[in-house]
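so my prof wants the structure for this chain in the tokens format not the other one, which i didnt know existed until like an hour ago. anyway here's the sequence
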Amino acid sequence: MDIAIIILVLIVDQATKMWIQSSPAVLAGTELIPGFMYLNYVKNTGAAWSMLSGQQVLLSLIAVVEIGVLLWFLVKVRGKKRLTEAALALMIGGALGNLWDRLYLGYVRDFIDTYPFGYDFPVFNIADAALCIGVGLLMIEMIREDRKEKKSV
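here's what i got, hopefully its the right format
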């Protein structure tokens, strides 16, 4: 299941990035959810919020280490904790999607532009969303485990 999630995230991420890149002028400003979500193609040479902009080698090395650590944890929990497996797979798939862009293009293709509560949130992509969802699922799993431990004491 975890391999399927990694592959699915990678395919959907790359397919949507190719789609938006193929016609950015046509799709620019397309409103997906009125007043909240738009398409806006951006070439991001940094990490979140464009931090470390232009540091492609460093960001690529960080991603490779991240993927290695996540794979190590995935092997350790495989078959034991389904939610943790899914979370790690989402994170690996997301990291691979953005690493692919960095290595082959020199930047990451972002295109989902949101305005939650009127705040102009940084533009992101499917890989970023998968990473965030994976982190969220890990947090849920940690809270569940903590509650289990407290009940058993």
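also thought this was worth mentioning. The mean pLDDT is 93.
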